[in-house]
Amino acid sequence: MIVIGRKGSWIKGLLPCNYSGRTALNSAICRSPPVILSAILMTTPRTFEDQRAVTQHIRDDAWNAWTPELLFYRLRHQSSPWYVAGGWALDLWHGYQTRDHEDLEFCVLSEDVDLYRMVLCELEFFQVLNGATAHLAPATTPLPNVSQIWGADLDNQCWRVDMMIEQGTLDDWF
User: Fold this and answer.
1) Is the pTM here over 0.85, yes or no?
2) The domain over range 43-166 is classified in CATH as 2.40.50
3) How would you class 108 by CB atoms within 10 Å of its CB: exposed for 0-12, middle for 13-18, buried for 19 or more?
4) Domain residues of the chain, as ranges?
C-alpha cells in the first residue's frame, strides 16, 4: 500500500532476517556479511578516513538500483515508517515511471537506521560524507554528521539503495 503523506510516498512494510542470514526462513535472501579485505581490522575504525581504508572500493557510479517495488517487497513487514524520496517519489506520485533512475533513495528516522540495516541484511552499508564513501561495520552506527548511507551488493559490485537519515521524531520529521 502506498500512501502519499507530507514527507512523500510512504510505503509501510520487518523482513525476518538478521546479519548472520542463517535461519531457514531467510536463507534465500540473506547472506553473512563478507569479510572485507583480510580481517576488517581488530577494532572498529573510529574516523571516517579509517573506515574508508578498511574496504574494497565500489565505484561511485556503479549503480544498479532496485526499483521501489523491490524495496517494498524487502520492507513489506516493517512497521517503522520509511518513504521513497527523489525522482522515484515523483514517479510514484504520478503513478508511472517518467524516466530511467540511476539510484533509489529512501528515508528513515535516525533511530531506525540499525533496524533497516538488519532488514536489508543482504547489503553491506557505507557512509557517505563529502563525496566519499566509507564502510559502516554492522555493529557501528553512522557518524553524527552523516545523513546518508549507501547499500552495496558486494557480490555484484554495485549500489542498490541510498538510505537517507532523517532527524526528528515520528511526529516531527525535518
Assistant:
1) no
2) no
3) buried
4) 43-166
